[in-house]
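Bug #77: duplicate submission created two jobs. Keeping one. Sequence:
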Amino acid sequence: MPADAQTTFPQDEVHHAVSNGIGAPEFNLPLPDRPEIITANILKLLEQAHDPRLRFLLKTLTRHMHQFITETSLTTDEWMKAIEFLTRVGQTCTPIRQETILLSDVFGISALVDAINNPPAAGATESSVLGPFFTEDAADVELGHSIASEGKGEYMFVEGTVKGTDGKPIPNVTIDTWETDDHGFYDTQYTSREAPDCRGRLRTDSEGRYSYRAVVPVPYPIPGDGPVGEMLLNMRRHNMRPAHLHMMFEAPGYAKLVTAFYPAGDEFIQSDAVFGVKKSLVVNLEQVNDPERAKALGFKRAEGFKYLRKDIVMRTEAEARETRTQIDEKTGLPLFDD
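Kept job's structure:
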């Protein structure tokens, strides 16, 4: 039986609780009759973790958490409210809604982890936060075809070439892309959702080229009907994200690139609720007023559309590892074990 199993038994059966199989430590810990002894004891126990990186992370996290509690003289009522809040965050998550990622996003944690792990390097396209609206069920889309059903917003055509830092095109790159409709909603936010929309999965051709039809993204509020939304109200912070188009690139031998592109001129670019905008990711959309070209690209209505040309540069896995190693050596921290 798993050590963490919570099982009930008929009263007429005799069972015994089972430990996880790890015995008492080979050293004695002082009984915690002072607050600081509690901190010292858990840090001593964490020395038993075999993996050096895990040991380092847990000890550092513990020190910071205990320091926060001590520095703020956290009350029992405040701690219980925090527990209740985190419980509600978890309970709000569903297979298509990720409130925990949203919590990480609004504190800038997602953006900070992304920035530290993906510094600008070798001319590679910069990354951005994944966000809570990525799903695995995007439909496969042929090059040049649409990720959005008709009537989801103003037409936009997106194309470019994916290359390595050596300038060579990368064929057969898997590209996931997703965005809001012109009402500011992702498909997962509609209770009537029957199939993915305003999202798709495509692959670059033999020359590394990609293209697809989409709609112009609009600014939108991150979900405000859950605990994270309530917290932002208490912080007196807006919950708006600037308009953006998500794209994720994967290819064998290359580091996964998760990024997004933000049309210039949006009023929320400099106060993004999740801190995801980087200067290099702000793009200009060209207005094309050519009905014949719109028709040739496959748009159902022969009218003007926005055009985005964005070439992508991916790092190899080796280049990404080298960047990570340089970060670890510079800070003197334990290296990651891949």
